[in-house]
Amino acid sequence: MSQKQPAKIVMVSNRGSYNLQATRDGIQVVPAISGLVSAVEPFLREKGGVWVAWGGREAPQENSPGLRLPVPEGNPAYTFREVPLTADEINLYYHGFTNSALWPLCHYFLEKCRYEVREWSAYVDVNAKFAAATLEEAGERDTVWVNDYHLALVPAHLRHRRPQLKQFFFWHIPFPHHDLLATLPWATHILRGLLGTDVLGFHLQAYVDNFLQAVAHMLGARVDFEAGIVFWEQRRIHVGAWPMGIDYQAFQRQAASPATMARAQKLREQIGVERLALSVERLDYTKGILERLLAWERLLEEAPEWRGRAALIQVAVPSRTAVPAYRQLKEQVEATVGRINSRFSDGNYQPVYYFWRGLPRRELVAYYLAADVMLVTPLRDGLNLVAKEYVASRRDQTGVLVLSRFAGAAQELKGAVLVNPYDIDGMAMIFNTALGMGRAEQSKRLQLLQERVRRHDVHWWMNCFHQAMAVREGETGDVSGSAGS
Ligand code: GDG
């Protein structure tokens, strides 16, 4: 890469902004749905750069080089660089270590964790592959931004191969207490890998604290807990809490479009109830879908006045379908929806509308607009962007956000009605309150929520990293006494 080119951002994540699908006519590029994509893609579209990611397909051959594609199609703004994975790698690294060890561990589902050495080895190999592709894309002056638990070892690889490269890392899910982390046989490797970065971000201060305690206890690193700095191998690593924001104005604009409003109106007419509740998420056991359905059923049992008058739309986006825990959950959710509908449907009335598919963005905003009550009740969630998107879409300041106290977003979103998703009876009572909440109370709460989501939007979030990097670049102080050197 030429030194004369302007510095660019190289985003690195397991799944990127696009999935590649082989068709008879060649490779088709399909936009991907994820929180990260929603937040960061607009930035790359505006500023250009590269997104290094697995394209979601099986590599055609063992050593395929990986495609480089200008995206979006028709109006290219940045480059999508594929890291091709073989069938074995997908199975062992993706379905295996990341989604059957790290994901449940970080969400406190220890009973769902599977620790297998060959899955760990695949994780090590795939992280090396991602690091190699990143080094091919990044120039000396570029900034590399690595994302999430899939790629915890990439920062140390990059540091080793190119010590001066500027690096951010953002961890999008909860970071567990070291008591829990210690159950993972390779926990110290994960910590060492992450310490290759310059700036490490989490959504919440609680996750920062867990990380700092883990490196202090498990690696013996010197830590300034107050300043959020780890001293490691003659370097300082800045660790901070920056809850991700959304593109508030984009949601407001979409919600203001006549087509979206008309679609929302049509949806309400089709369902034909007084009060409409909505939930949208990947079909994942952390999201509390089953518990929410049980609470909805309890509501209809205990508060029969809602029968015929309130319905729930549950959008469950297919996710990780090769992992047994997800397949099992799908069966349980579908059986539960079937039972509730057979118990309480009457004439044209149906209490639950269940969709196992993703919606196009425009359609999603129409659903947000149609919903009087948004139920976001994960058992544990790093943050949760859906809650923020609902808030941003409610231009007339009506609507109620019911939010789990175990979603990271609950710390920011004062004005939401908080629930404990493990307490089915309690949740049913809160659904009752939310469905019956008056306009004045709704609007008071939504104003508070919108103020927060508007101020701490995606631009604020990106800026936090730039500021943290600027602080790091201004440093010249003594870093002697670092452990791990
Ligand atoms: C992880 C962490 C953290 C969802 N359904 C549809 C759709 N989505 C979009 C939403 C939102 C994103 O996907 C989901 O983001 P969440 O934050 O709610 O949840 P995760 O996917 O689990 O994300 C989470 C996040 O990373 C960011 O750091 O907040 O805690 O688990 O943007 O809009 N988009 C479309 N159709 C759908 O049906 N178009």
Q: Can you describe what's shown?
A:
The protein contains 16 helices and 18 strands. β16, α13 and β17 form a beta-alpha-beta unit. The strands form three sheets. The protein has a ten-stranded mixed β-sheet, sandwiched between helices. Strands 15-14-13-16-17-18 form a six-stranded parallel β-sheet, with helices on both faces. The C terminus is likely disordered. The relative contact order is 0.10. The protein is 44% helix and 19% strand. It has 485 residues and is an alpha/beta fold. The radius of gyration is 23 Å and the shape is globular. α3 crosses α4 and α10 crosses α14. The site of GDP-alpha-D-glucose has 25 residues, from α1, β13, β14, α12 and α13. GDP-alpha-D-glucose binds next to α1, β13, β14, α12 and α13.
Blueprint of the fold:
Elements: E1 9-15, E2 18-23, E3 26-31, H1 35-47, E4 50-54, E5 68-71, E6 78-82, H2 87-106, H3 117-137, E7 143-147, H4 154-161, E8 166-170, H5 178-181, H6 187-194, E9 199-202, H7 205-219, E10 222-224, E11 229-232, E12 235-241, H8 248-256, H9 258-271, E13 275-282, H10 289-302, E14 310-317, H11 324-344, E15 352-355, H12 361-370, E16 373-376, H13 385-393, E17 400-404, E18 417-419, H14 424-436, H15 439-455, H16 458-473
Parallel strand pairs: 1-4, 1-7, 4-6, 7-8, 8-9, 9-12, 13-14, 13-16, 14-15, 16-17, 17-18
Antiparallel strand pairs: 2-3, 5-6, 10-11, 11-12
Helix pairs in contact: 2-3, 3-4, 8-13, 9-12, 10-11, 10-14
